[in-house]
Amino acid sequence: MKIVTFNIQNLFHRDRSFLEKPFNKNKEEWEMEVDQLLEKPTKSSQDNERIRELAPLVGMDNGYQLPYAVLRRKAGFLFLKGKNYLNELRASELTDWNGWIALQNYPLDPIAVENKARVIADVNPDILVLQEIEDRASLEEFNDEFLSWFGCKPFQKTCVMQGNSKRGQEIGILTRKGYEIKSVRSHVYDLNFPGEIGFDKDLMEYEILTARGNSLWILATHLQEQTEYKEHSDAKRKAQAEKIAEVYHKLYAEGKKQIAVMGTLNTISYCNSLAPLLQRTNLKLVTKHPSFNVDFDKGKDAGYYSLGAYRMGVNIKQKDYLLLSPELFDKVKSSGLNRKGIWPDKRPMWWVYPSIHCKAHAASEHPAIWVDLSL
Description:
seven-stranded mixed beta sheet; single chain; Endo/exonu/phosph_ase_sf; six-stranded mixed beta sheet; Deoxyribonuclease I, Chain A; Endonuclease/exonuclease/phosphatase family protein
C-alpha cells in the first residue's frame, strides 16, 4: 500500500495574493500620483491615460457587477471590465468609476497542470493526500481528465471538506479501489488557548479501511506559514502542532496504533514550533528510514548538506513531512521523495521533467513524499 502527501499548490487557479508582487517599491509613489490626478478639478487626456496605466497597479476596483465583461492582461495580472464600457475614464465621479477589476484568482499555466498530473502518475499511490486544492469540483475534474494522460488510472473516491482558508487551500484525499474512507473528521472549529480558531486551514482526521481489512488513521494538515512576524507565526504553528500531538496521543491511547501524520508543516525540523510533534511524540520521520530514496543534486552539491534540508544531497528546505507511528514505521517497505516537478531557481540543481522550462511550468514548489507499507 503506497501513501503520498503532496502540496500541489492548486490545480487550475490560484489566489492572486500568492503571486510575487514585483512593484512593491513603486506602489506608494503610484498611489500618491493617482491621488494627485484624481484631485485635479479638470483632467487632460494625458491625465486620463496615466490613470488608466496606474489603475491596475494600485488595485483600484470597479463597483459595477455587469453580466458581460471583457478580460485583459495588465502587468502580468488578469483584469475584468464591463462589456459596455466607455473609452474614457470618469475618474472624478466615484460612483461612476469605469475602471478594471483585478480577478481574485489567476489561471495556472496548462503545462504546470500537466506536470502536477505527471508527478502523481510517477508516484502512483493507493492513497493520495493533497494540500492546497480549490474545491472538490476541481479535484474531480483533475482526477477524471488529467491523470489518464500519463497512464495513471483515476482514483475511485475523492473527499474534500472546506476548511478555514479563504484562498483555496483545502485538504483532500483520494483512494483507489479496495481502500475505503471509513470516517472523516474535521478540526476546523478547534480552538486554541485564547479561544480563537486554531487552524487557519484545517486538520483532517481520516480512517481508511485497507484492502486487507486493516484500519489506518491519517492526520492531514497544513500549518501556519512563516511570515515577517516570526514570533507570532512560530507561536501559532506551535499551538497547532500541540493540538495535532493531542489528537495523535488520544488515538494511540485508544489502541489505534497505525497512524500517519502528514502535510505541510511550513518550517524546518529543528524549529521549536514543531517540537510537540517531532520531540514529544513517538512519531518517526519517513525521511530517516534506510529505504528513503530520492534523486540527488547534480555535481558537487550531491555531497553538500544545507541546514534544514531533507538530507545530504537533497538540498531543498524541508517544509513537507510524512510522520509514522512506530508500528507503521516497522512496516515500511520503501519510501522516497519526488521533486522532479520543482523548478530550481538557483543552486543546488536537480533533474526536472523536460517540459519544465521556467518557474511557471513547475508542478509545485513542494515535493511529493511517499511511503510503501506492508499493511
